[in-house]
Design a protein that fits this description.
heterodimer, A: 639 residues, mainly alpha, 3-stranded mixed sheet, 71% helix, 3% strand, B: 520 residues, two-stranded antiparallel ribbon, translocase (chain B), EC 7.1.1.- (chain B)
């Protein structure tokens, strides 16, 4: 689609007119689970899984219906939400290939992780509430991807945020979990505020936040406004997706239960930023500077995530930084624009499978090792957990991009496309993506080897680690299958063509003659990363943290000073501002207010003394008043 | 001057239909006096209540009939141009009666205080044994009903008067019964009698100003008719110093009744000392009447000279709003608090009046009705909080009422919020109407002072709310009487109208708008 073309959505008919059910079913289930209370304890988890399963089945049905339609985008107006004067907002749904894809990812992977959580949360007394929040999340996430305006998306956006905070702080008796929830909340507010301002800009300039109105009108706006909109949307996306400079909350979010990490903080919610940018493609297409900034953020974040990931010893934190880094790849892709939009979404889907699988594997390891998360305390587990070993192994091979697993099909084209940008940018971003691939191979190999191979370095209280129950194993196996096959299936199943109605061109930029060479180079880089890690860690590692010898290691252990950055750049000025405001409020405003009150009170008490109760003095007052009135009137007249 | 010959006096034509409401009220008042004289003691109370209510309802029905039969659109002068039957006149008469009916309900209540709020024999020495005996045993005297009918009839005459003499007579007709009624409290009789004497003395004083003003204006215009004064203001060759002194004197007399600063001094003492139902009547109906007179004089007689006198009256409006609000802050007695609030409210109405254009009339009319209903309900609630000495009016005694009587405290809170001008109450819509009219009339300074003073006034109102809800009740806290049917009805009407006109002000604003045209 070029800018000249009008964005137009057909209204939904037939089967697709019930597409709102996708959102309504999990929402109803969440309401039941959260409102019924303990009465639903016995069957709550079943309802939770069933509702998301039902949404998945419906999603499939709608998906095939949409494939059969000539026009690939339908919208459905539900009801009038706000109408004040000329300000009008409708609840509406947009169902097109992009949202259909997300629906399948959210409900499909979501269903598997729901099933896994039945086993994982078995011992938790709050399991019903957990599924309530989980359903709430699913319905909000579906609203996010199905809304037909930025405002609808924003409502879903806040809904997933709410569910995310609730679930990060799930183990509320742990101070770390409570703090992590707060941190996620605060950092997301920064992004959300930017998103809101972007919507204000749309209202101010275009009078609406409907996708159709905005996308059709964006071409006529001055470049400054478009750029501001794009950057504000990018800031919103960075907050939700853990991109620089708002990445610090995501690793801390791993304090939540592992299924939460897998579903919300790996597969779906954190990719909402990618969705937002991909959805707003007409805005970003209109400003090449904005696109370059997206690419730069993505490239920088993917390296940042890799470097920190190398230095972490907590299995979930390594995976978390890996997520940060992989989303960096997606940002890089959607920033490149054109055919690379589809590549970003492709990587998002592939990542959804293998990262969810990796997290579930990590959860399975923790389940067997009494909630141990320290990589230095694993080792030799492959013998005790063969299924976990196999599924994590496949996920691991997929993420580092070994052919023919899905990472190979999704990540290599992004590296290609980055080089294809040309000029110095092509070199900088391409090399960053390539280096990231090598680093990914390194830290993922480290994780895999330290966990499953080498000597046992278990803590003393563990005698015999056990494999997880079937209800947890099955989702892991299915996700592993997805990790293996998704990439290839999507590429050869015509996924990029499928997205054509949303992004227009599907022509993937790349030097066709160099294609084979590029694949060779990136594979070589990956293998070097694997080899170094294997050589370093095949014999295990020290049981405690070693003193850092180089500044890079020290910096990486400190999350590349991300927290320090936040504390000095945001927290310190914020604190000073608060203190100044409190001071000003206390001494200045309160001073004025209490001073005024004192003046009023004082004059009131003084005036009261005139009210003596004697008629004679009252009469005198009236007489005096009369004289003044007469004198004043005469003065006005004469003067 | 030629001696007036009998043959020169012709009886003016009187349109009895147009002045029927006034005649009904005054006639029924006479019926009440006769009933007092001839009926046995036990029958007097029911008959008087009936006569009083029937008179007012019939009067109101006649007014509505007159308004519907186009007297509002095609106003007439009658009785030799002494009386004007026009939109504002009919509206004000109606307002006096509507508020009068509610006040009559409060006056007629006999179950809250055994025997009613009024003394049985006003002439018994206060504090004597006979007084204690009558306070315990005997029911109220029922002269209060014809007295209030005379007062209401006088007010209706007052707002319709089209010349200064008629206006003066009407002023006295409604003032004299009020002086008497103030003295009739069953409890705290000395305070009540003191209030009556003060009111009477100061009222006589202000009437003297009024009469002196009439003399000056007659000297200026050679006539006491408003229309002639308006004509003379443009074309008279005489020094208009006479006119301005006359205007000042008239205004003083009227502003005294309206309780504007600095002619407000009587208000707190009289409001506090008078029996509370009478206070309610004064705060609502007298205010309507006083401002009816002010509106008519300013808009009919002195419209063309407004550039000269408006600044002076504007200063009075500012003083009234600000001093009323400031003094309300330190009051410790609920009746005095409401008295100062009523002073400040007089300032708000005056602000609307000074817009000196059509919506100045309509907004003032609207404000008078909204304020009247709210203040009636507020004083009605004051009658319910009692201890063994009668009404417990000291504010400290109201502490913790929210816990003892949640319904009463809730309604009172609502009324206070309305006084404070919070949206969804008639206090808000009324203030909005007068302030926007004043803005339209170029009185920005007045509006600024008005808004500031209403901010100030919010403090004493909310202090009562805080007292009721956030403080522990005292050990000997007053009891809250169960309101009888009459008081309940009055409270319900007051509160509902306060809410209704807050949510749906156009019901009344439209009526006020279509009535806002004086006949000149």
């Amino acid at each position: 689609m070029t800018l000249a073309e009008q964005v137009q959505y057909q209204s939904a008919t037939g089967a697709l007119s019930s597409v709102w059910l996708l959102i309504a079913i999990p929402l109803a289930s969440a309401a039941v689970l959260l409102l019924l209370g303990r009465k639903a304890d016995r069957w709550g988890h079943i309802l939770g899984c069933a509702s998301i399963g039902a949404s998945f089945v419906l999603g499939l049905w709608y998906f095939f219906t949409l494939r059969g339609l000539g026009h690939k985008a339908v919208s459905l107006d539900l009801f009038n939400f706000i109408q004040v004067g000329r300000f009008k907002v409708d609840w509406g749904i947009l169902y097109d290939p992009l949202s259909a894809t997300f629906v399948l990812l959210i409900t499909g992977v979501g269903f598997l992780i729901h099933v896994y959580a039945v086993g994982y949360m078995k011992e938790d007394p709050g399991r019903r509430r957990f599924f309530g929040y989980f359903n709430l999340f699913a319905s909000a996430m579906l609203l996010l991807v199905l809304g037909n305006s930025f405002l609808m998306t924003f409502i879903g956006w806040e809904g997933v945020g709410l569910a995310s905070y609730l679930l990060i702080s799930w183990y509320q008796d742990r101070p770390a979990a409570a703090t992590a929830g707060k941190k996620a909340f605060l950092m997301n507010r920064v992004g959300d505020a930017a998103f809101l301002v972007a919507m204000f800009l749309m209202f101010a300039n275009l009078g609406s936040t409907d996708f159709a109105t905005v996308f059709n009108g964006v071409g006529a706006l001055p470049h400054g406004v478009t750029l501001a909109m794009a950057l504000l949307l990018l800031a919103g996306a960075c907050g939700k997706s853990g991109q620089f400079p708002l990445q610090a909350w995501l690793p801390d979010a791993m304090e939540g239960p592992t299924p939460v990490s897998a579903l919300i903080h790996a597969a779906t919610m954190v990719t909402a930023g990618v969705y937002l940018i991909a959805r707003s493609n007409p805005i970003f297409d209109a400003t090449s500077l904005g696109q370059t900034i997206v690419v730069a953020v993505g490239a920088f974040t993917l390296l940042l995530g890799c470097v920190i990931g190398c230095a972490k010893d907590d299995i979930k934190r390594v995976l978390a930084y890996s997520t940060v880094s992989q989303i960096g790849y997606m940002f890089l892709a959607v920033g490149l624009g054109g055919g690379a939009y589809a590549l970003g979404i492709l990587h998002l889907l592939a990542h959804g499978f293998f990262k969810a699988g990796l997290f579930l594997g990590a959860g399975s390891v923790m389940h067997g090792m009494k909630d141990q998360t320290d990589l230095r305390r694993f080792g030799g587990l492959w013998r005790y957990m063969p299924v976990t070993w196999a599924t994590v192994g496949l996920g691991y091979l997929a993420i580092i991009g070994i052919p023919p697993l899905s990472g190979f099909f999704s990540k290599d084209p992004i590296i290609d496309a980055a080089f294809a940008r040309g000029g110095w940018q092509g070199w900088v971003f391409g090399l960053a993506a390539l280096l990231g691939a090598g680093l990914t191979a390194f830290y993922m190999t480290r994780l895999f080897v330290l966990t499953f191979h080498g000597k046992k370095r278990w803590t003393d209280d563990i005698e015999h680690p056990h494999e997880s129950p079937g209800v947890m194993k099955l989702p892991m196996i299915l996700l592993a299958v997805g990790s293996v096959a998704a990439g290839g299936l999507l590429v050869y199943g015509g996924f990029t063509t499928w997205l054509e109605p949303v992004f227009g061109t599907t022509e993937v930029p790349g030097h066709e003659p160099n294609r084979a060479m590029m694949i060779g180079i990136s594979l070589a880089v990956v293998l070097v990363g694997v080899a170094i890690a294997w050589l370093l860690f095949r014999r295990g590692t020290a049981l405690v943290e070693q003193p850092a010898r180089s500044p890079i290691v020290r910096a990486a252990r400190e999350n590349l000073y991300g927290d320090v950055f936040n504390e000095t750049v945001f927290e310190l000025p914020g604190k000073l501002l608060t203190r100044a405001a409190v001071f000003f409020d206390g001494k200045g405003i309160d001073g004025i207010v209490t001073g005024l009150a004192a003046i009023v009170g004082g004059s009131s008490s003084r005036l009261r003394r005139l009210q003596t109760g004697f008629v004679r003095s009252y009469a005198l007052t009236i007489l005096g008043g009369a004289l003044v009135v007469v004198a004043a009137l005469m003065a006005v007249k004469l003067g | 001057m030629n001696p007036v010959l009998a043959a020169d006096i012709t009886l003016p034509h009187i349109n009895y239909g147009a002045i029927a409401p006034i005649l009904i009220l005054l006639g029924m008042a006479c019926v009440g006096v006769l009933a007092e004289a001839f009926l046995p003691r036990t029958l007097r109370y029911p008959v008087q209540v009936l006569v009083s209510l029937v008179a007012q309802v019939a009067g109101l029905a006649t007014i509505i009939g007159l308004a519907l039969s186009n007297y509002a659109k095609k106003p007439t002068l009658t009785a030799g141009d002494a009386l004007a039957v026009d939109g504002p006149g009919l509206f004000l008469q109606g307002a006096v009666l509507v508020l009068g009916i509610v006040a009559t309900l409060l006056i007629a209540e006999r179950s809250v205080e055994r025997g009613g709020a009024f003394v049985a024999q006003a002439a018994v020495t206060a504090g004597s044994e006979a007084d204690a005996e009558q306070a315990r045993r005997q029911p109220s005297q029922t002269e209060i009903f014809p007295l209030s009918l005379f007062a209401l009839g006088g007010m209706m005459l007052f707002v319709s008067a089209n010349d200064l003499l008629t206006m003066f007579v009407a002023l006295e007709v409604f003032s004299l019964p009020l002086y008497l009624m103030c003295a009739l409290a069953r409890r705290r009789r000395l305070l009540s009698q003191e209030a009556a004497v003060k009111y009477f003395l100061l009222g006589a004083f202000s009437s003297a100003f009024f009469v002196y003003g009439i003399a000056m204006l007659y000297g200026f215009a050679g006539s006491v008719k408003f229309h002639d004064i308006a004509v003379a203001a443009i074309s008279s060759g005489k020094s208009d110093l006479l006119m301005f002194i006359g205007l000042a004197m008239l205004a003083i007399g009227l502003l005294f009744k309206a309780a504007a600063v600095p002619f407000h001094v009587w208000t707190p003492d009289v409001y506090q000392g008078a029996p509370t139902p009478v206070t309610a009547l004064m705060a609502s109906c007298t205010k309507v009447a006083a401002f009816g007179g002010i509106l008519r004089i300013f808009y009919v007689a002195f419209l063309d000279s407004r550039w000269d006198w408006r600044p002076v009256i504007g200063v009075i409006a500012v003083l009234t709003m600000v001093i009323g609000a400031i003094l309300a802050v330190t009051q410790t007695d609920i009746k005095r608090l409401l008295a100062y609030s009523s002073i400040a409210n007089a300032g708000y109405v005056l602000t609307g009046v000074l817009a000196m254009q059509k919506d100045g009339i309509s907004s003032s009319l609207f404000y008078l009705v909204t304020y009247g209903f709210t203040v009636l309900a507020a004083f009605g609630l004051v009658t319910l909080v009692r201890d063994q000495d009668g009404e417990a009016t000291h504010l400290s005694r109201w502490a913790g009422l929210g816990r003892k009587a949640p319904v009463l405290a809730g309604v009172f809170t609502f009324l206070m919020l309305s006084f404070a001008g919070i949206p969804l109450t008639s206090g808000f819509t009324g203030k909005f109407a007068v302030f926007s009219a004043a803005l339209g009339g170029g009185q920005t300074t007045l509006v600024i002072f008005g808004v500031l003073s209403s901010v100030l006034l919010a403090f004493p109102y909310l202090r009562v709310v805080v007292l009721m809800y956030l403080q522990e009740p005292a050990a000997d806290a007053p009891t809250v009487a169960v309101p009888g049917a009459l008081t309940s009805a009055a409270l319900a009407i007051g509160a509902i109208v306060t809410l209704l006109l807050g949510v749906w002000p156009s019901v009344l604003l439209d009526v006020a708008n279509s009535a806002a045209q004086f006949v000149g």
